[in-house]
Structure formats: C-alpha cells, structure tokens
Design a protein that fits this description.
The protein is 17% helix and 48% strand. It is built from 3 helices and 15 strands. It has an 8-stranded antiparallel β-barrel with strand order 1-2-3-6-7-11-12-15. A two-stranded antiparallel ribbon has the order 8-9. A hairpin with a 2-residue loop joins strand 8 and strand 9. The longest helix is centred in the first third of the chain and has 19 residues. The protein is elongated, with a radius of gyration of 26 Å.
C-alpha cells in the first residue's frame, strides 16, 4: 500500500470515528419510529432505541393485510352429469389467493462503525397463504342451485372438501411460529446526527419445513391419511417445496424519524 492510499484510509477512518463519537447514545434515552416496506414480507412499523453507539434495539410489526393478487377461475373437474343435475350447467371456482403474513420482530443491530450493520434476532408470527373463493356461472355471478339440490363437495382420497353455500377456503401455514433471523444492511434505525434516517437490509429467517393445511377452518392431516396419494403429497411438501423456502428471504427498506 503506497503512502497516498494509506493517507486516504487514515483520513476516512478519522472522519468516521469522529462522526460516530458525536451525539453519543445513552441507553434507552432515544426513540425512532420507522415505516418499512418489504417486497417479500409486506409493510409495517417499527420502534427503535439505541443502547449505545454500537447497538440498536428494534421492535416492529409487519403484515400483508390488504395486499391483493387478483381473482382467477379454476375448473374443479366435477363429473359433468353430477354437476349438471345440481346447477344445470358446469360452474367454475372463482378463487382469490391471498398472502396472510403477520409478524412481530425483536431485532438487534450491531454497528461496528459508520452506517453498516449486522442484525440478529427473531420474527414471531405466521407465514400463511390462503385461497378464498366460490362457485360462479359463465358470467362470474355466484352459482345458484336448482330446486331441491344440495351444494357439492370434493373427495380427495379419504378427505372431503365441503362447499357450503358454494364457498370454500383453503389456508396453508408454512414454517414455525418463532423464526430466527440474520441480516446485513446499511443505514440506521435511529438517526444519529439528524432527525431522519434511511436504512436498507437484506437477510433471511429460518422457518423450518413444518406446515399446517386447513380447509374451511378444519385441519387436513395428510401425513396420517389412509390414502397413499395424500401421504405422497405430504412428503412432497415437506421434502421438496418447504425446503425451497425454509430460509425465507427478507428485503427491507425503512424510513425512520427520531422523536427524541
């Protein structure tokens, strides 16, 4: 390393340490409130406080409530003769998929110097995917029964999926409730020399590969089904699909305001 490079690094280090020593944090005597947005996690709010010049404690809530992904028509493959007796035509299932994420977080940022930080902690909550829908006719109007008929049901092996009033919901919860987290980022959750701060963070939380599948609020136990095809579905979920997102990525943009 030549003298010029050494001089530049020395000046940068001196400037960084000098700035970092200004407005020193006293434990729990400052508070920042932030709004955060995560393309893979939703949106939320967070409160943060500096413990000292290197550690910031963060407590927040993130959700996907109100984020829609559209509606889609699905052919459920009813027997044509059977379904024609009930409706007089072949209805489709008008499905509305939804992300149902709701997580609280307790995180600790470690700033070795400057704005770079390492984050560790945990998220607590549910990573859920849901589908809510109802039977419709060719014009997407809710299906109506012919006189004296009952709503159909779908049999999958030894599991019966009922459709009371032509509606059916399916919820899929992936992973554990408590999820350890590790991330890296730049920026601060509590502004140090100004009122406003911005931070960017990239990390991942460990969810595990457990799951819960519910239909109309009833748990479907595929693992202990008497039908081999349903047990195969369970094995595919735990051995293949769940492993792909066992470590759920977390990309976070946050704008914070220091109250005091």
């Amino acid at each position: 390393m030549n003298k010029k490079c050494f001089l530049v690094l020395a000046m940068w280090a001196t400037t960084t340490l000098s700035a970092f020593s200004q407005n020193d944090f006293e434990a729990f005597k400052n508070l920042g409130i932030g709004l955060k947005l995560s393309p893979l996690f939703g949106y939320g709010v967070e409160a943060a406080t500096g413990i000292n010049n290197h550690l910031i404690l963060r407590l927040g809530l993130t959700t996907t409530y109100g984020i829609g992904v559209g509606q889609y028509n699905v052919d459920l493959g009813f027997d044509e003769d059977y379904i024609d007796e009930i409706f007089g035509y072949s209805p489709e299932y008008r499905a509305k998929p939804a992300l149902k994420f709701m997580h609280g977080n307790l995180l600790l940022d470690y700033h070795p110097g400057g704005i770079f930080h390492i984050t560790a902690g945990a998220f607590v909550g549910a990573t859920k995917f849901g589908v809510d829908g109802y039977l419709v006719d060719s014009r997407n109007n809710k299906a109506t029964l012919l006189p004296g008929q009952d709503w159909p049901s779908i049999d999958i092996g030894d599991q019966t999926i009922g459709m009371p009033n032509g509606r059916a919901t399916v919820d899929f919860r992936l992973g554990n409730i408590i999820k350890p987290y590790f991330g890296l980022g730049v920026g601060r959750a509590v502004a140090k020399n100004k009122k406003v701060a911005f931070k960017f963070e990239l990390g991942a939380m460990y969810q595990g590969n457990s799951y819960v599948l519910k239909q109309n609020g009833k748990v479907l136990d595929l693992a202990h089904s008497t039908q081999e095809d349903l047990r195969d579905i369970h094995n595919k979920i735990t051995d293949e699909y769940a492993k792909l997102i066992r470590f759920w990525p977390h990309l976070n943009f946050q704008l914070s305001y220091r109250i005091f």
